[in-house]
Amino acid sequence: MNINKASLFIVNCYSLLLYGGKGSGEINMINKEIVIWDNDGTIMGAKNPNDTSSGSKVILPNIHNVMTNNKAVHIICSGCKTPESELQNFEPENVIKRFLLLMEQLPIQAAVFSPAIGGIECYILIKKHSDNNVIVRKAHEEIRYKHLIGQFKKPGVGMLIVIQDLLKEEFGQIMSTVNSIMIGDTWHDEHAAKTIGIPFLDAKHIHNMK
């Protein structure tokens, strides 16, 4: 894909994300779009930038409108190798509770996250709309993902490989350059997206939408 086509693709994806309608150009993602979201700094953020406690976080501007006006499969991909996150292991049960609450507020079908230092764990939450139940799986305990232990946190692609399989097995979708996009706020998100081969959109374009 050349630069002009790649730029056109991003514009079309962005148009569809904002308006849920047809974008001009050669890409039509209606009813088959896949949107993979980072969480912290993309979906959720603190009202006060100096307050980093989990209780201070709110859904960031325009996220609700973008998700609800779009028919995509929305999946969270949460966990980066940063100096702060590598200082502690996050309790999976607490992360699950936060994502369950978020799933009640936004049309998120699944969440994949890596809570442990070194990216050695990967949890999957799948919301079943038929009975509104949520399935929890531990990808790091599945034999097919053993080679990804240590690569689950972004900029590693472990979680995105898990999401790729999840989309196919649970939603009947094939993740590709044509029908998928990742939205995030750090270089970790962008690097992971480019490595797996899908376009990336900086979350600030959504937050700053007028």
If you had to describe this structure to a student in words, what would you say it looks like?
Residues 1-32 have low confidence and may be disordered. A seven-stranded mixed beta sheet has the order 7-6-5-4-1-8-9, sandwiched between helices. A two-stranded antiparallel sheet has the order 2-3. With 210 residues, the protein is an alpha/beta fold. It contains six helices and nine strands, in the order H-E-E-E-H-E-H-E-E-E-H-E-H-E-H. It has helices spanning 3-19, 63-68, 92-105, 158-171, 187-196, 204-207, and strands at 34-37, 44-46, 57-59, 73-78, 110-113, 123-128, 133-138, 180-184, 200-202. The chain has a single domain (31-207), classed as Rossmann fold.
State the main characteristics.
alpha/beta; Rossmann fold; 7-stranded mixed beta sheet; two-stranded antiparallel ribbon
SSE topology:
Layout: H1 3-19, E1 34-37, E2 44-46, E3 57-59, H2 63-68, E4 73-78, H3 92-105, E5 110-113, E6 123-128, E7 133-138, H4 158-171, E8 180-184, H5 187-196, E9 200-202, H6 204-207
Parallel strand pairs: 1-4, 1-8, 4-5, 8-9
Antiparallel strand pairs: 2-3, 5-6, 6-7
CATH hierarchy class name: Alpha Beta
Element-by-element helix/strand order? HEEEHEHEEEHEHEH
Strand content: 15-25%
Q: What's the CATH H-level homologous superfamily?
A: HAD superfamily/HAD-like
Structural class: alpha/beta
The rounded distance between the terminal residues' Cα atoms is 30 Å
- Average pLDDT, rounded to a whole number, is 84
**Total number of beta strands:** 9
Detail the poorly predicted runs: 1-32
